[in-house]
Amino acid sequence: MSDTRMERMRSRFQAALAPLELTLDDDSALHAGHAGAASGGGHYNVRIVSLQFEGLKLVTRHRLVYDSVHDMMHKEIHALAITALAPSEV
């Protein structure tokens, strides 16, 4: 189930942000026993490099990332650590 969840997340990030680079890691095992883990929501770490982030503030970049998986938040995704960079910052 986690692989399918990660595939859906990856697909949504790609569709919404057309990343030049996308790294998605499942850190759920590091949070075993955590309240969010008990509810079935996973802990993920994503690094996205996208032209869409050029000139945007960090909060706006994060909002774009969250918006791409909004219906998965708090159900399938308990926590999402985001690194959102423009190509000029890499």
UniProtKB/TrEMBL annotation:
Q: Which organism is it from?
A: Duganella violaceipulchra
Pfam families linked to this entry = BolA
Per its UniProt record, what InterPro entries does this chain match? BolA
Q: Which family does it belong to?
A: Belongs to the BolA/IbaG family.
The highest taxon in the source lineage is: Bacteria
What protein name is recorded for this chain? BolA family transcriptional regulator
**Classification of source organism:** Bacteria, Pseudomonadati, Pseudomonadota, Betaproteobacteria, Burkholderiales
Task: Return one Gene Ontology term, BP aspect.
Answer: iron-sulfur cluster assembly
